[in-house]
Amino acid sequence: MTWPDALQEAIDTFADVFDPMERYEMLFEWAADVNELPDAEWNDSNMIHGCQSQAHVMCHLEDGLFYMRGGADAQIVQGLMAITCLAVNGRPPQEVVELQPTFVDEMGLKASLTPSRSNGFLNMFKRVQDEARSLMEGA
Amino acid sequence: MTWPDALQEAIDTFADVFDPMERYEMLFEWAADVNELPDAEWNDSNMIHGCQSQAHVMCHLEDGLFYMRGGADAQIVQGLMAITCLAVNGRPPQEVVELQPTFVDEMGLKASLTPSRSNGFLNMFKRVQDEARSLMEGA
Amino acid sequence: MSLDIESIRADFPILSRKVAGGKDLVYLDNAATTQKPQVVIDAMTRYYEQSNANVHRAVHTLAAEATEQYEAARDTLASWFGTTRDNLIFTSGTTEAINLVAWGWARSNLGAGDAVVITEMEHHADIVPWQLLAEEKGIEIRVVPIDTDQDTLDMEIFSASLSGAKLVCVVHTSNVLGVANPVADIISQSHAAGAKVLIDAAQAAPHERIDFEGMGADFVAISGHKMCGPTGIGCLLATTGCIEEMEPFMSGGDMIETVTMEKSTFASGPQKFEAGTPKIAEAIGFAAAADYLSKLDMEAVHRHIRGLATYTANELKSVHGITVYGDHSVADGSGVVSFLHDTIHAEDLARFMDAGGFAMRTGHHCAQPLLDAYGVTSTNRVSFYLYNTQQEASAFVEHLRYIVDKFGG
Amino acid sequence: MSLDIESIRADFPILSRKVAGGKDLVYLDNAATTQKPQVVIDAMTRYYEQSNANVHRAVHTLAAEATEQYEAARDTLASWFGTTRDNLIFTSGTTEAINLVAWGWARSNLGAGDAVVITEMEHHADIVPWQLLAEEKGIEIRVVPIDTDQDTLDMEIFSASLSGAKLVCVVHTSNVLGVANPVADIISQSHAAGAKVLIDAAQAAPHERIDFEGMGADFVAISGHKMCGPTGIGCLLATTGCIEEMEPFMSGGDMIETVTMEKSTFASGPQKFEAGTPKIAEAIGFAAAADYLSKLDMEAVHRHIRGLATYTANELKSVHGITVYGDHSVADGSGVVSFLHDTIHAEDLARFMDAGGFAMRTGHHCAQPLLDAYGVTSTNRVSFYLYNTQQEASAFVEHLRYIVDKFGG
Ligand SMILES: Cc1ncc(COP(=O)(O)O)c(C=O)c1O
Ligand SMILES: Cc1ncc(COP(=O)(O)O)c(C=O)c1O
Question: Tell me, which fold does domain C41-294 have in CATH?
Answer without folding.
Answer: Aspartate Aminotransferase; domain 2 (3.40.640)
